[in-house]
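Forwarding these from the shared drive since the link keeps breaking.
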Amino acid sequence: MRVLARERGVFAGAIVVAAACGALGVPIDFVLFGLTLAGVGLFHHHAMQVALSGLTIRQVASTFARSTLSLRSARSEVT
């Protein structure tokens, strides 16, 4: 984990900013995109892997949110 030893502070700062944005109501898609851009900037030698990881995480989060919303609407229709 030598790679993370140098960028640990910057990465921790990005996580704090993302948490603050989430608390202020910024959509999670924007937060995940910003974290992906920060990751590409930090790990520019592995830009493709970081970008594909960010895309995958965004798709999983979007699918999870969509399924959660459909479950909520199904429950509200039953009651």
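-- next protein --
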Amino acid sequence: MFKFLNKIFSGKDSEFGSRSSSWRKIRKEFLKENPTCRACGTDEDLEVHHIVPYHVSPEKELDKKNLITLCGKRCHFIFGHFCDWRSWNDSVVSDCDSYNSKRLLRPKLKEKNNDNIKSDRSAFIDAMLFSWNDRSKYK
């Protein structure tokens, strides 16, 4: 247990090596400059995603052009990793921009009381997750 905690607090990533000592500062600055999820627009549970993973291209770890803000609830997994943490999406920026544009321009009914209706964002992403969970049959 202590070895695990030591890896976390020392900046070591057990699978991919260690993070730069500047990562926390860069991450904080990036979130300040990009305070919403690029895909869904939320400002909650945000994560900074590397477009090209830093274990693939370590020199891009701190390059802000290689970063994108995604929410950790769903968009990081769906748009950043195609629903597979071992994968990544080289076109994450354009995919997020396309989805967000469609999300903002979508037609919708105006309801007086939306409290009991699941949000469009949540319903769409849930549908994507369900379809991706069974993708093994297509391999």
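The chain has one domain: 2-138. The longest helix spans residues 92-105.

- D.
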